[in-house]
Amino acid sequence: MEVAIGLLIPFLGTALGSGMVFFMKNKINKKIEKILMGFAAGVMMAASIWSLIMPSIEMSEQQGHTPWLPAAAGFLLGMVFLLILDCIIPHLHRNTNKEEGLKAAIKRETMLVLAVTLHNIPEGMALGVTFAGFLIGNVGMTLAGAMVLAIGIAIQNFPEGAIISMPLKSEGMKKSKAFFYGTLSGIVEPIGAVLTILFAQAVVPALPYLLAFAAGAMIYVVVEELIPESQAGAHSNLATMGVAVGFALMMVLDIALG
Questions:
Q1: d(CA 19, CA 76)
Q2: C-alpha separations of 157 from 26, 42, 105, 214 in Å
C-alpha cells in the first residue's frame, strides 16, 4: 500500500498543476512561466544526484564492483536513450516556430502533451528503480528515500502540469479539456514505475546501472529542453533563481528525509 501511494504521488502533482488552469483568466504570465521552468530544472538536477547517482555508487560498492563504472555507464546510456527517443517521438520545443514532416500533421496541442510526456518517462523510471531497491531490501534504498523522490518529482510535476494546461487554455481550448491533457501527460509515470519495478526485481545486479540510467535521462531533459527554454528571451534571471530554489529544496528534502 505504501509503495502504491508512493507511485501515485507524482501523478497527483501533475494533476494539481494542471488544475491551475481553472484559476487562469487569460494567458499565462511569462515571468511565472520562467520561474516554473527553472524550478522544475533545479528539482530534477538535485534528484538525479542525491536520489540516483549517489545510491548507484553506494550500491556498486556493496556489490564489490568498481564504484564509478555502473554510474558512468548507466548515466551515458540514459542520455543516449533520451536522445534517440527525442528524435523518434514527434514533440514540440516551446520556442520552435517551424514544424516539418510529421510535426506539421499533428496539432500543436498534441505536441505540447507529447513534449512533457517525454519528460515524464525518466521520472517514472527513477521512481521505479528507487522503490525496487527498497522492495528487495537493499540497505542503501529506504522507503523514506523513495518517498522523498516521489514528493520531489511531484513538486517538479506541478509546474509541468501547469505549463501544459495553461498554454492550451491560452490557445482557446476549454479549461476542462486543457486540464485533461495536462493530467494525461503524467499517466506514463506510474505505469513506467511499475514496469521498471518488475524489471529491476528480476535483475537486481543491474540496479546501479538502472539508477544511473534514470539520472542520465533526467539530466538530458534538463539540458536539452528546460534550461534552453527557460533562458531564452527576457526574464532569464527569474528562471535562474527558480533553478536555485528548486535544487536547494530537493537537496534538503532528500538529505533530511532520506
A1: 36
A2: 22, 12, 28, 16
Which residue in 189, 183, 251 sits closest to 42, CA to CA?
Answer: 251
The C-alpha cell at 174 is 476549454
Quote the Cα angle for 207-211-217, to 5°. Answer: 140
How many CB atoms neighbour CB 88 within 10 A?
Answer: 8
* Torsion angle in degrees (nearest 10) through CA of 185, 232, 214, 56: -150
Q: Report the alpha-carbon distance of residue 46 to residue 130 in Å, rounded.
A: 15
Count other C-beta atoms under 10 Å from residue 214's C-beta. Answer: 33
3-state class of 237 per DSSP? helix
Could you tell me the pTM of the whole model? 0.71
Tens digit of each residue's pLDDT (9 = 90 or more) over 47-96: 888 878 988 898 888 878 888 999 999 999 989 988 887 787 655 555 55
Report the alpha-carbon angle 62-131-85, nearest 5. Answer: 100
Instruction: Determine the longest span between alpha carbons in the chain, in angstroms.
Output: 58
- The type of residue at 248 is A
Residue 45 CB neighbour total at 10 angstroms: 22
Domain boundary assignment for the chain: 2-24+43-257
Nearest to 129 by CA among 62, 73, 61, 48: 48
Distance CA 30, CA 167 (A): 11
**What would the grid cell of residue 243 be?**
533553478
